[in-house]
């Protein structure tokens, strides 16, 4: 097809692309179309013939037109600017240059066709896009939430800095693109990684799903993960995840939940009041304390819950003052309960203020003080009374005596103090147990109270010690009361169908002659009571000033006794035990002796009880035991073995490791256990039956003999004779003394001997002084005797001599 010149012009001017034809040699514009004229803001006519440099605006273009264009054939495509002469603006253009050879072989006949596409709009939209992108990035990076976008295949397209922070993405994952590593890292940060992985897989399967999940991360953060589909033209193209740190929120919520639980489950009664001090809420503890359901209480004024002496306004003024000064008010109030009851509560009422500082709400905490008040009352009672008997204790007695002394200054009257101690009450406790002893003490207290007038006062000081204040009393009244008390005590008591009587010792002091203060009067009455005990108990006596001197000498004696062992003032003597039938010595009782440089010969009857009271008997007894075992080993070594009997006190027997020590001693001196016998009193055997039996069994297993000393003077329970491994009974010398004339003693001794025989237990009579006694005992079937008739206890050396002289007294024969 051939295009006419007219048609070409129409096409040339019709195209929207600016074009001009430049003479390659002259560098002048030969032709320009109308689009070119519009682009540069000139007319076509103005442009044609114009040097091409006239339109150059950039240094690069100047260089371009200044160089040879011979090489331009395939065309040049570049971006540049042209100036619009009309507006003066630079217009960005997309420029193409094409070389055209007009006639063959004439290099001068060469043209350059320039086409320019205005890029203004394209560049503007490009800038707009970049600006939008940077805005979007800035927005993402400044977002408080972590954001991550991915496509439908799960490939990560973008995430922001916050996401990196929340998930603590390591630096290397920020520098290189590794979606799999990022996902693995994120999963590893979730506490339940497996569950999270499954959840993500499930979300990926549902492109249109909108999700919200709470994630607990290993770093302690709680994160809310939301995900929404990313839609392009209504179709899912990917997914946007956002992650919000809700740790604080979760903490607050947990705190609120906890507070609600505390409110609901608190044992304290709690109410919340509004700004007008009307009850808004109460907890179950409060309902319980009030005895009313919340509905009946909510809306009532807080002050209406209490029974108060003050009126409402006065009380609230006080409360407000507390709120102003400390933020709370605290005090004891009487709470109204259901059915007109009341209870005492401790109210702590705290004001909660709004931002402006006004009291918006208040919380009241109430603690029931009933138990505390009861305990307080009990403490006061206990402070003034004896818990066991309920009798007043020393405090009220002090007050009473102080008042009596004060009153006596006016009218000169006197009063008496009686110090009363139950005799051998320890035996009751030891044998029948403390609970039984406690019940006896209560009965005693009742009896004693019955002997007194209203104006007198009976107190228990502790243990088995009582003090009686006799109001307006002289020596005669005191004595008659003491006598009445003793008669009353001797009247049989009944407990658990057991009848018994109690003996007591009473010491008395008088005001004002024996002291002008309670402490002195009690001390002196106590001293008098001691003297009564020493004289044989079961009686009463008045304080005499020289008694204190006696007490002092007791203390001196105790001190001397403790020194005696180290100073060699103690010795062990041996008293022979003789076989009735043969007259041979078959054993010896070891008896301790003390000769003091100051006190002279002190009887064991005096110092053994002192040693028992002070606990020194443990040391003393261990020493006697060692001497006796050593001596018996010596007898055996001399070919004259004999059984040695050693007295063991209750305290010694109770010592842990007693059996082990005996066993070690026997081993140390090489004495076979059968040559040792332990003498125990009945009181020892009754201490704690079970524990006692274990020790006795262990001793029996060792092969040591056991005898019961002073048999018949204690409880003489047949039960333990049957149960325990006893080898011998020792008839007390008090029964032997009455033989053969006293029918009662004869009957007792006969009974003991018969019982021994029946139970196959040996019987020894002690304190045999006459042939008549020996014959009587022999006639009754008693096996052995011990007493002055044969010999008193003698030093070890004398005893050895005695054994070596068969002609002088009893012959010795070892028999066991
Ligand atoms: N725990 C320990 N107690 C001991 C020890 N040594 C002695 N005692 C106890 O002291 C009490 C008094 O003992 P004592 O003054 O030695 O009297 C004993 C004998 O000397 C005395 N006796 C012996 N024969 C006669 C006699 O014919 N007539 C008479 N009037 N008295 C006599 O009897 C006492 C022996 O008592 P007993 O032990 O009951 O067999 C006394 O209770 C001793 O037990 C010791 O080392 N440890």
From TrEMBL:
Gene Ontology biological process terms, A to Z: cellular response to nitric oxide
Signal sequence region: none
Residues annotated as domain PAS: 261-326
Domain GGDEF: start-end pairs: 413-545
Ranges for domain EAL: 554-807
CDD domains: EAL (cd01948), GGDEF (cd01949), PAS (cd00130)
SUPFAM superfamilies xrefs: EAL domain-like, Nucleotide cyclase, PYP-like sensor domain (PAS domain)
InterPro entries attached to this UniProt entry: Biofilm_reg_signaling, EAL_dom, EAL_sf, GGDEF_dom, Nucleotide_cyclase, PAS, PAS-assoc_C, PAS-like_dom_sf
Known catalytic reactions: 3',3'-c-di-GMP + H2O = 5'-phosphoguanylyl(3'->5')guanosine + H(+)
Top-level taxon: Bacteria
GO molecular function, one term: cyclic-guanylate-specific phosphodiesterase activity
Domain PAC: start-end pairs: 329-381
PANTHER family for this protein: BIOFILM ARCHITECTURE MAINTENANCE PROTEIN MBAA, DIGUANYLATE CYCLASE DGCP
The protein's name: Diguanylate cyclase/phosphodiesterase with PAS/PAC sensor(S)
Organism: Alicycliphilus denitrificans (strain DSM 14773 / CIP 107495 / K601)
Organism phylogeny: Bacteria, Pseudomonadati, Pseudomonadota, Betaproteobacteria, Burkholderiales
